Amino acid sequence: MAGTAIAQPKGKKGPATAAPGKAGKAPAPDKTPAPANPGDAGGEIEMDADDGKQAGAGSGDVNPDEIDMGEPDKQGDLNADLNIAEQNANAVKATPVKKTPLSWQDIVVVIRKPFLKVRRTELLPFVGTTMNDNMVRHYTVGGELAYYLTDVLAVGVEGLYYVHSFREPFDLVARQARRLPTINQYNWSAALNFHYVPVYGKFAVFDHSLVTWEASFTAGIGAGQSEVIPRDTKFPGFTNLLIVPNVGASMRFFLSKWLTLSLGIRDYVFYDHFEPKNRTEIMYATAADAKDHADGSLINNVMFQIGVSFWLPTTFEYTTFR
Amino acid sequence: MKNHTLLAVVSILAVSGSADADRRQSTLPTDVAVRHRRLLVKNRFELAPLFESTINADFRHIIGGGAKLEYHLGNIPLFGDTLSIGVVGVGSTAINTKLVDKIRPTLEPTIDNKTREPSQDEFMNRLNAMPVHGAGYLSLTPWYGKLAAFGQAYVAFDFYFQAGISYAQLKSNCPATVCSDMSPGSSHEDSNGVTVQDEMPLNPNNDPPLNNGSRVGVYLGGGIHVFLNDFLALDMTVRDYAFTDNPSGADFNADLIVSSADNRFLHHLFFGVGISVMLPTTVKRTP
Question: Any CB–CB contact under 8 A between B198 and chain A?
Fold first, then answer.
């Protein structure tokens, strides 16, 4: 679309169309027009033509030979121009304000991304809950600090604190099948994460307001601690130090220049150790003995997380033209 | 004279500029968010063959295939083109969860009514399956947009939310040799007029599970269409079929009798993925 917008040439700026001899050399319609020569206004939007005009001055051209302009041309003075512009702005404010496009520069075909992340730090407090364990549900309170090296790449650290509650099947299995489930609780975890943001989009809500969002993938490695919940409370539990890689995907919705809403799914993968079976007063009674004979299993702890991100610095500057 | 001429010209230009400003009053505050929008769903039928599986089921995963048929309405007062009506139906099979696989080998292999624990058959034959389930619903599509993946692939998408009535056909098959107590919890009066349970002690393990038959409940769903072209879309949905159920078929309220009181209102979460075919295959655009 950007390559197809063609403005009408100004009447006083030179020939309106190319010379007949050059007509055959005009670029094809599906190609981007070549840059115009200084004296050739055809096919190019004049981005500077409106700059020197005052607001409300109309669009008609004035021939200085027919009208007395009052005083001869003089060298431009930036401060004077700014003062005039400010006075005119005040004058406009005195009347009902009409929001109108001021020039071609205000008409953009493709808008800029409303949020830049490069060289900014994200502070993300979040909460989460287990998605794939029907015996025990963990809730987490955590935070992540991430620094964006580019607009799509970031490195960060996160920490999580876990609390748990038992779900219905935990009691049902004990009551109905007369079996006590072997359960570990998670106490904390921390990780170094890398984020990649390949998807960026926007959507309209009820056809009236636009919301921009993006999707990112995360991979990281860290450590955590799990703790055995003894089936029989007369036996002591024990803790395990875990190596915890994680992968995940999340979405981020932009609320302002310094505030975003994040939600996503993270899979924490680790090899956990559980209380051994047939634990009695004469077998695996102590925590150390039980830990030495613990049953191991690969665990995928899939968690849903949601949080609000705060961005520092709280604002940013565009480095490219819109 | 020259000054008067200049003043007149400037005045005319100023008036014309003001009039021009009036004509060019911005309509952005009342405009739609997107112009020339492709109406990817409005006034179109959506037929989507789909695959569906339970999320985090306790005893049995329900996995199956089916179809969704939906018609997207247009220009409904207050809702515009965001409403649709539809039905979804799925035929399924059941697969034991890892929890069942862990419990089963630890149970006694043969029935022993002297113990409180069920035998392997008593435990397994009480679990129910869901051969057929579905829903009729009203759907709202409040969000639509487009996304760029890796800065190259541009696709349209929309989010939708559904609510309606769910239906499920539950099935359990406990033979009379296992579920042998045909009148669980029944009692009689002895010669002294004292109520005595027919079965002492009460044993819920040989009671019929009472977890088969038809169920009607509430349906809730939410999902996303990712449009591959003007008439094909990847359709991903999380569905909740909520109805009364007792998946284990065992005594839930600890009264040692399996009865209808052990049923409770449960959420059955499914994740579905399908390919939506939009008919007609051509789309219209908004002004």
Answer: no
